[in-house]
């Protein structure tokens, strides 16, 4: 694989009114990395991927593969493979024809092409003898995606670009293909850039991911970094369940229902801070027992309790300006009843403060 560097790429569409799809996006994707671009529909993911592919020209900015500036190179001159939503297979042709198509166009001799088709079909776990001569229309959705992957890998690309390739498949098949994709990436060493709006997919799959919103890059990091230390309110709520409570701070101290929280514990810049802050914490960080001398104590009324198997979701009200949630081990939450006033606890280290 090669590294992919995106330098201050901007794009505005001018056909139906004007839409600014990308605002000065910078990315540094390492060679052989499995990198996801994550964000809600319309945030610019496909636009960015098409620019990396060479299917679309940016208004400003450059794209580099290793040290080579490829900004002005068309897609067919870039060492890429693609699995895009709109890059469909030929349903009436065989698996063999679909995978060998690009090789024939590139002028590969027949026997070399056949060897390669065999190799890539084995790679995506579709044994040649069983599948090569089936028609695409005779395959399941998951098998079709494997063919699309085999076709994209046939010419041994340095970068594989995938745009929500599994979004139309059932959950179980999707999980299976995501595992397969990870294995493929390790086996081939190809740099993989995977676009998705699904935070679970991105977290399961990625070495690192970039979160985008409204054409602006919000944060880049490992799934764990981005989940536990989100850069802002958007990232916090997009990557899983988030409790966000707005509080007025005075002289660096925020007070919620009599509980004083010294903001300088979270960040030295917040000492003496006056104004609104947002307290962010994940439901699973709310503890049912704790040490009040060391932990933030939340006193609230249970208004809802949902059994989720190993965990139970508890919705609470009366601490802070909005309801918040706790996610507790079911065994520990048996005794908690709806309507009851309870005390729960937070480690200060599991709380993050946003100042907007
Ligand atoms: P995503 O893949 O994250 O859903 P897109 O890159 O497809 O986002 O789109 C980003 C923004 O650009 C959206 O507001 C979309 O409506 C707009 N857009 C995308 N393609 C075009 C186009 N060809 N002409 C005009 N606007 C477009
Ligand atoms: Mg898209």
UniProtKB/TrEMBL annotation:
<dbReference type="InterPro" id="IPR050093">
    <property type="entry name" value="ABC_SmlMolc_Importer"/>
</dbReference>
<dbReference type="GO" id="GO:0016887">
    <property type="term" value="F:ATP hydrolysis activity"/>
</dbReference>
<dbReference type="GO" id="GO:1901238">
    <property type="term" value="F:ABC-type tungstate transporter activity"/>
</dbReference>
<dbReference type="InterPro" id="IPR017871">
    <property type="entry name" value="ABC_transporter-like_CS"/>
</dbReference>
<comment type="function">
    <text>Part of the ABC transporter complex WtpABC involved in molybdate/tungstate import. Responsible for energy coupling to the transport system.</text>
</comment>
<dbReference type="InterPro" id="IPR008995">
    <property type="entry name" value="Mo/tungstate-bd_C_term_dom"/>
</dbReference>
<dbReference type="InterPro" id="IPR003439">
    <property type="entry name" value="ABC_transporter-like_ATP-bd"/>
</dbReference>
<dbReference type="GO" id="GO:0005524">
    <property type="term" value="F:ATP binding"/>
</dbReference>
<keyword id="KW-0547">Nucleotide-binding</keyword>
<dbReference type="InterPro" id="IPR003593">
    <property type="entry name" value="AAA+_ATPase"/>
</dbReference>
<comment type="similarity">
    <text>Belongs to the ABC transporter superfamily. Sulfate/tungstate importer (TC 3.A.1.6) family.</text>
</comment>
<keyword id="KW-0500">Molybdenum</keyword>
<keyword id="KW-0813">Transport</keyword>
<dbReference type="GO" id="GO:0043190">
    <property type="term" value="C:ATP-binding cassette (ABC) transporter complex"/>
</dbReference>
<dbReference type="Pfam" id="PF00005">
    <property type="entry name" value="ABC_tran"/>
</dbReference>
<dbReference type="InterPro" id="IPR013611">
    <property type="entry name" value="Transp-assoc_OB_typ2"/>
</dbReference>
<dbReference type="InterPro" id="IPR027417">
    <property type="entry name" value="P-loop_NTPase"/>
</dbReference>
<dbReference type="Pfam" id="PF08402">
    <property type="entry name" value="TOBE_2"/>
</dbReference>
<protein>
    <recommendedName>
        <fullName>Molybdate/tungstate import ATP-binding protein WtpC</fullName>
        <ecNumber>7.3.2.6</ecNumber>
    </recommendedName>
</protein>
<feature type="domain" description="ABC transporter">
    <location>
        <begin position="4"/>
        <end position="239"/>
    </location>
</feature>
<keyword id="KW-0067">ATP-binding</keyword>
<comment type="subunit">
    <text>The complex is composed of two ATP-binding proteins (WtpC), two transmembrane proteins (WtpB) and a solute-binding protein (WtpA).</text>
</comment>
